[in-house]
Amino acid sequence: MHGRIKLKTTEEQAEQKQKERLKKLHFYETTRSACFAKRKAGILDEEGLILSGQLLAANPDFATLWNFRREIFLHLKEEKNPEELQTLFEKELSFLETCLRVNPKSYGTWHHRGWVLDHSPHPDWKVELELCSKFLQFDERNFHCWDYRRLVVQRAEVSPQEELEFTHKLIGTNFSNYSSWHYRSTLLPLVYPDTECRVGRADEEALLTEYELVQNALFTDPNDQSAWFYYRWLLGRADREETVSCLYISREGQRLIVSFSHPVNVLLPRDELILFVDGLPLRVTWKSPHPQLKRSAIWQLSLISSMICELPPNTINAACSEHNFKVHWRDGRIQRECILYKGRSESWCRDSATDQQLFRCDLSVEKTTVLQSELNSCTQLQELEPDNKWCALTIILLMRALDPLGYEKEMLQCFQTLKATDPMRTAYFDDLLSKFIIENSILKMEYAESRNLTNLCHLDQMQLVTHMNLTSNRLKSLPIHLSMMQCLEVLEASDNEIESLEGLVQLPRLQEISLQNNRISKIGDLRPLASCPSLILLNLKGNPITEVPDFESELSELLPSLKDLIV
């Protein structure tokens, strides 16, 4: 009827939208082609800025067009005077802010903004700080903006102290600001450097004052993860000092093993690790205990946590009263010495786990008091929030920091609480518990037997162990790092779920292995044992492989040194 607006039908609306899309597509493709044509022809003018700007305003993630704009600016830099160029750059910054409103997490836009300011005749970095603060109000976890802010802070020469106060302000507004907590962890070591010059750690007094801030966050919202993660950083420790933790010499095996506090590169330069015998340098070839290990803490003259080398013939003279072995690492800054006396079949020199402060730091009276107070507070919080897994996990870490052996029983109870609270992560908690059980075994020097293990770790600390009992655990494999246990003679691993023996490689002294009631199913699973020349006893009773036809004959070919097979 007259005077009434005609409403379009659904079909008409769809057709109209399709026409609009085609129109936009045509404009987009035409403009894009024009930009590409100008770039190919080397025409770098302001029209190229206009054309590329029309596309980037709608789609800021077109990286090629940002590159095109930078090429134009570099060209115009040679043609325009500083005032004209400054005006051009200021217009670009305004355009970039428009693009960021379209997509605040555009990699290309943030990168281009930094480039523009670096090439601007008169950059105003203070304005950029305000811009970052504005965008962080919209999204406090915008890591693109945080990365850009770090660039701005560097260029504007903002002090770490000012940035630390900035994080405090944001955290005070919202305890859930994970990015601010993380940024704070990078600033504290700069504002309050560690008095012992440990890289990445802040002064102890500064760290202790941080606990109060975290406590406020935890009791305000116990289920928020941000403050709990920061709490774990506070409980952390600096990297241990690089050392040669153990030097072992075998007269019978004519080999030397070097263990390190940190994993080292198997392919390190020949002159980085130097062996001296009786004061004279000896050229040797270093290798890792296992061919698959590329980083390790042992050096059998190879790369991992340990390295091994075979000594040249006649290096060890039976008639000599003693031989002095010394290794130089890191240009001689790190050394370890060991003496092999006449009549001794082996010798070693090593630090104990306690001496190395391997699993915890020496605590001052003040820090012990603060951590004990934190443990009490977390225990109270757990009573209020019994289903809070972060609280239970932090209690475990506090116990480990204070006294890992004294709190052993309580730690086991906390793990039961954790698994009941978060059953989906039971496997993770089991692995973490295994790690702590092994650490306690090393601290107590009770290597022979461990229970409730789902994985093996810290094997570089068991390099001198000869007998290991892993019976009745839940292990699914014997990992390649087991090859670092070069002195191992007897391994009991019955009643597990073991399917892989990849770690039982090149163990020269291994004589007996018990794998009863596991899941070894094919002859190929036993192939690693062929590299263990001293193996004489193997127990495979209760494994599926015993039902394979001709299993025993194939095994005798694979392991000719084997004298006793139990099936």
Automatic annotation (TrEMBL):
InterPro entries documented for this protein: Leu-rich_rpt, Leu-rich_rpt_4, LRR_dom_sf, Prenyl_trans_a, RabGGT_asu_insert-dom_sf, RabGGT_asu_insert-domain
Enzyme nomenclature, EC number: 2.5.1.60
Signal peptide: none
PROSITE patterns in UniProt: LRR (PS51450), PFTA (PS51147)
Enzyme class: transferase
Pfam families linked to this entry: LRR_4, PPTA, RabGGT_insert
Record GO terms (molecular function): transferase activity
Catalytic reactions on record: geranylgeranyl diphosphate + L-cysteinyl-[protein] = S-geranylgeranyl-L-cysteinyl-[protein] + diphosphate
SUPFAM superfamilies according to UniProt: L domain-like (SSF52058), Protein prenylyltransferase (SSF48439), Rab geranylgeranyltransferase alpha-subunit, insert domain (SSF49594)
Keywords: Leucine-rich repeat, Phosphoprotein, Prenyltransferase, Repeat, Transferase
Domain Rab geranylgeranyltransferase alpha subunit insert-domain as annotated: residue spans: 244-353
PANTHER family named among the record's database cross-references: GERANYLGERANYL TRANSFERASE TYPE-2 SUBUNIT ALPHA (PTHR11129:SF2), PROTEIN FARNESYLTRANSFERASE ALPHA SUBUNIT/RAB GERANYLGERANYL TRANSFERASE ALPHA SUBUNIT (PTHR11129)
Family label: Belongs to the protein prenyltransferase subunit alpha family.
Function: Catalyzes the transfer of a geranyl-geranyl moiety from geranyl-geranyl pyrophosphate to cysteines occuring in specific C-terminal amino acid sequences. Catalyzes the transfer of a geranylgeranyl moiety from geranylgeranyl diphosphate to both cysteines of Rab proteins with the C-terminal sequence -XXCC, -XCXC and -CCXX, such as RAB1A, RAB3A, RAB5A and RAB7A.
Protein name: Geranylgeranyl transferase type-2 subunit alpha
